[in-house]
Amino acid sequence: MIFFWAFVVGGLICVIGQIMFDVFKLTPAHTLSTFVVIGALLDGFGLYEPFIDFAGAGATIPITSFGNSLVHGAMAEAEKHGLVGVISGMFEVTSAGISAAIIFGMIGAILFKPKG
Protein backbone atom coordinates (compact mmCIF):
# COMPACT_ATOMS: atom_id res chain seq x y z
CA MET A 1 0.00 0.00 0.00
CA ILE A 2 2.97 2.32 0.49
CA PHE A 3 3.67 2.32 -3.25
CA PHE A 4 0.00 2.84 -4.07
CA TRP A 5 -0.35 5.93 -1.87
CA ALA A 6 2.97 7.34 -3.06
CA PHE A 7 1.80 6.96 -6.66
CA VAL A 8 -1.64 8.47 -5.97
CA VAL A 9 -0.40 11.43 -3.93
CA GLY A 10 2.51 12.19 -6.29
CA GLY A 11 0.12 11.92 -9.23
CA LEU A 12 -2.39 14.26 -7.60
CA ILE A 13 0.32 16.85 -7.02
CA CYS A 14 1.22 16.59 -10.71
CA VAL A 15 -2.45 16.91 -11.71
CA ILE A 16 -2.76 20.06 -9.62
CA GLY A 17 0.33 21.45 -11.37
CA GLN A 18 -1.11 20.63 -14.78
CA ILE A 19 -4.39 22.32 -13.85
CA MET A 20 -2.43 25.39 -12.80
CA PHE A 21 -0.81 25.42 -16.26
CA ASP A 22 -3.94 24.75 -18.30
CA VAL A 23 -6.77 26.45 -16.42
CA PHE A 24 -5.06 29.32 -14.63
CA LYS A 25 -2.47 29.84 -17.42
CA LEU A 26 0.38 30.10 -14.90
CA THR A 27 3.95 29.87 -16.10
CA PRO A 28 6.21 27.04 -14.90
CA ALA A 29 8.02 29.53 -12.64
CA HIS A 30 4.77 30.62 -10.98
CA THR A 31 3.67 27.03 -10.52
CA LEU A 32 7.02 26.00 -9.10
CA SER A 33 7.05 28.93 -6.68
CA THR A 34 3.50 28.20 -5.60
CA PHE A 35 4.33 24.58 -4.80
CA VAL A 36 7.42 25.58 -2.80
CA VAL A 37 5.38 28.08 -0.78
CA ILE A 38 2.63 25.51 -0.18
CA GLY A 39 5.20 23.01 1.09
CA ALA A 40 6.72 25.67 3.34
CA LEU A 41 3.33 26.67 4.75
CA LEU A 42 2.31 23.08 5.39
CA ASP A 43 5.56 22.47 7.29
CA GLY A 44 5.14 25.72 9.20
CA PHE A 45 1.78 24.49 10.45
CA GLY A 46 3.20 21.04 11.21
CA LEU A 47 1.18 19.28 8.51
CA TYR A 48 3.89 18.19 6.07
CA GLU A 49 5.56 15.54 8.26
CA PRO A 50 2.29 13.60 8.71
CA PHE A 51 1.79 13.98 4.96
CA ILE A 52 5.23 12.41 4.36
CA ASP A 53 4.44 9.62 6.81
CA PHE A 54 1.28 8.85 4.83
CA ALA A 55 2.48 9.31 1.25
CA GLY A 56 6.21 8.55 1.48
CA ALA A 57 7.95 9.31 -1.81
CA GLY A 58 4.72 10.79 -3.17
CA ALA A 59 5.31 13.69 -0.78
CA THR A 60 9.11 13.83 -0.70
CA ILE A 61 9.87 13.75 -4.45
CA PRO A 62 7.72 16.70 -5.69
CA ILE A 63 9.01 20.27 -5.32
CA THR A 64 6.69 20.85 -2.34
CA SER A 65 9.26 18.92 -0.33
CA PHE A 66 11.84 21.64 -1.06
CA GLY A 67 9.65 24.20 0.70
CA ASN A 68 9.22 21.75 3.54
CA SER A 69 13.01 21.32 3.80
CA LEU A 70 13.63 25.07 3.85
CA VAL A 71 11.22 25.71 6.71
CA HIS A 72 12.10 22.52 8.57
CA GLY A 73 15.81 23.37 8.56
CA ALA A 74 15.21 27.00 9.45
CA MET A 75 12.98 26.14 12.40
CA ALA A 76 15.35 23.47 13.73
CA GLU A 77 18.36 25.79 13.61
CA ALA A 78 16.38 28.76 14.97
CA GLU A 79 15.74 26.78 18.13
CA LYS A 80 19.49 26.22 18.55
CA HIS A 81 21.02 29.48 17.31
CA GLY A 82 18.24 32.07 17.18
CA LEU A 83 17.81 34.41 14.23
CA VAL A 84 21.14 33.49 12.62
CA GLY A 85 20.05 29.85 12.65
CA VAL A 86 17.08 30.66 10.44
CA ILE A 87 19.33 31.53 7.51
CA SER A 88 21.99 28.91 8.12
CA GLY A 89 19.38 26.18 8.67
CA MET A 90 17.81 26.70 5.26
CA PHE A 91 21.16 26.29 3.52
CA GLU A 92 22.31 23.41 5.69
CA VAL A 93 19.35 21.18 4.87
CA THR A 94 19.07 21.99 1.16
CA SER A 95 22.72 22.39 0.21
CA ALA A 96 23.23 18.76 -0.90
CA GLY A 97 20.32 18.86 -3.35
CA ILE A 98 21.28 22.23 -4.76
CA SER A 99 24.93 21.19 -5.10
CA ALA A 100 23.93 17.96 -6.86
CA ALA A 101 21.75 19.88 -9.32
CA ILE A 102 24.61 22.24 -10.16
CA ILE A 103 27.20 19.47 -10.51
CA PHE A 104 25.02 17.17 -12.62
CA GLY A 105 23.92 20.11 -14.76
CA MET A 106 27.53 21.00 -15.42
CA ILE A 107 28.42 17.38 -16.24
CA GLY A 108 25.45 17.19 -18.62
CA ALA A 109 26.54 20.40 -20.32
CA ILE A 110 30.07 19.05 -20.76
CA LEU A 111 29.02 15.63 -22.08
CA PHE A 112 26.19 16.62 -24.40
CA LYS A 113 25.94 19.27 -27.11
CA PRO A 114 23.11 21.70 -26.50
CA LYS A 115 20.94 22.45 -29.50
CA GLY A 116 20.37 26.06 -30.11
From TrEMBL:
The chain crosses the membrane at residues 6-24, 83-112. It comes from the Bacteria. This is Stage V sporulation protein AE. The keyword Transmembrane helix applies. It holds the Pfam family SpoVAC_SpoVAEB. Keywords: Membrane, Transmembrane, Transmembrane helix. InterPro entries: Spore_V_AE (IPR014204), SpoVA (IPR005562). The keyword Transmembrane helix applies. It comes from Priestia aryabhattai.
